[in-house]
Design a protein that fits this description.
The complex is a heterodimer.
Chain A lengths: L1 H19 L5 E6 L9 H15 L4 E6 L6 H12 L4 E4 L5 H10 L4 E5 L8 E6 L1 H15 L4 E6 L4 H17 L4 E6 L6 H13 L4 E4 L5 H9 L2 E6 L10 E7 L2 H13 L6 E4 L6 E3 L7 H16 L9 E2 L5 E3 L7 H5 L15
Parallel strand pairs in A: 1-2, 1-3, 3-4, 4-5, 5-11, 6-7, 6-8, 8-9, 9-10
Antiparallel strand pairs in A: 10-12, 13-14
Chain B lengths: L1 H29 L7 H19 L2 H25 L4 H20 L24 H5 L4 H19 L1 H11 L1 H6 L4 H27 L11 H11 L4 H24 L5 H19 L3 H7 L13
Helix pairs in contact in B: 1-6, 1-9, 1-10, 1-11, 2-3, 2-4, 2-9, 2-10, 3-4, 3-9, 6-7, 6-11, 10-11, 11-12
Chain lengths: ~350, ~300
Amino acid sequence: MKLRILGLTLAAAIVGSASAQAQDPVEACFVYVGSKTDGGWTQAHDIGRQEADNLMGDAVTTKFVENIPEGADAERAIERFARSGCDIIFTTSFGFMDPTIKVAKKYPDVKFEHATGYKTADNVTSYNSRFYEGRYIIGQIAAKMSKTGVAGYIASFPIPEVVQGINAFLLGAQSVNPDFKLKVVWVNSWFDAGKEADAAKALIDQGVDILTQHTDSTAPMQVAAERGAHAFGQASDMIKAGPETQLSAIVDTWGAYYIKRIQAVIDGTWESQSSWDGLAEGILTMAPYTNMPDDVKAMAEETEAKIKSGELHPFTGPINKQDGTQWLAEGETADDGTLLGMNFYVEGVDDKLPQ
Amino acid sequence: MELAVAVIITIVTAATPLLIAATGELVVERSGVLNLGVEGMMVIGAVVAFAIAHGTGSPYMGIIGGIAAGVFLSLLFGFLTLTLATNQVATGLALTLLGLGLSGAIGEPYVGLPGTKLQPIEIPLLADIPFFGPVFFKQDIIVYVSFALVAGVAWFLFRTRSGLTLRSVGDSQTSAHTLGIPVIRIRYLAVMFGGACAGLAGAQLSLAYTPQWVENMTAGRGWIALALVVFASWRPLRVIAGAYLFGAVTIGQLHAQALGFGIPSQLLSSLPYLATIAVLVIISRDRRLTLVNTPASLGKPFVPDR
């Protein structure tokens, strides 16, 4: 790993010095938490990077490091990039937030962009995607497609983003079938194929016939395929793991955002901001609606269109919290602050939220 | 009843890689060598098994490839620690890092490809027994091998002359050497056996457990196997108990979550480890008995004086 970073830095140094005489392209650097071929989260970021690299031509060069653990190593990797002449650095995991802020203080001339966090600074932007919009749609599909009326949710860590997803999924499902049930299993990991598979088996053994996940491996999709259940892909289109199993997938499409932000650096118009885009802006897209009857597909497409046009907000009242107390009154929609800090379930989730 | 069968089948799948890798490491440690590289050999076994199964279309070729890869890596460890007498702890850790990095590089073209699943083999008649049939006699070949492996190792270590020789090497390398026993050669064989087992355990991960290749797919199972050896106080049959207890608690806690008992999931996730520690404490109550089983030369490099 260190060797790989070293190799990259070296290669970049050579490339950098060779092209310095030319027009000095903007250098965009990416720090990944996983492998760029993980089939999920990191792969989606890397596809975005490649898009920027290909479409922006000579104006941009890109670099990346992969498999950087959240913690002390992250700070080193980010700082190495900052020192090596990167103009803008994208750090693509929640746990990179504090290291990013720390390094950014030392390098005020470098622009930083941190994914899925909440802290910003003069040279640090935080960007995120409204994954919950997609979760609402797949919740509706699940309720239509499930024969047992119970879906299983393989969850990673009880952070607001994940809780948001669980709530949005159930609200979508309840909008079709008010009695729809959801079983949640926490695996306390973002990426452990074996554990995710075990969780998938446990859920299916307990009568679940639709799986959805907020973890990054394709193992649950594979188990669902084996057992004849249906499942939804996460972060990347996982249709290859289950050609007859995947109903749709919430696909992260960061490319457009990366191009926009790198262009801002080129134009000198980059400013710190908090960006939270969704389906409408194309930062997330739905994989083709497959393995379902036409009427279900039509419903999903209609919901997608309504969310894009702003006609439908997944968190629109009346919604009660899990304990039955009112959260949103009729017609009221949730504000972004509450969503970003979401630490409670809505009514109907069959699980106790780990605190 | 049906749920119980389903649960136990899942437990067998989860316990098998731990059982195999731990049994292999047990033999290595009984010969006085501590190889902390189980995780690395396992992950290399997983990627090579997947690649070969994918290339040839035969999961059985994959298994053989996985075993060979584990042996190859263990030979590297053997050369360093036995021939060059390097520090075993440091070399083992390096082996794990090497395995994880190398497997990522080898596996890059195989990420996301559909795997070749190892199909279960039904044993005639026995498979029809209610409950036990589906649980123990409708499994894939690696499960059967894991049972044979433990029985074979238990018999070898405590019922054969060669087993006694191997244990004597682990207990007192100098005495064994003085008696003319080829310490280094025996340790090489033990280390290779450990490598083969770790490779097989890895093959189980990428061919049976989750038939696919993803980077770092062992996710710490090699370390658990190492802990199980201590847990079993270097006795093969106790490894079965340890691996299955660990597997049972791992799967059981997922079911408990899905049933919605309302117990915090962090507590449930830590249960397998808590259970292991609890049993370990109970086992080590009698310090004298523990010492009898611990190979006295464990981890000490051996340089023959002549």
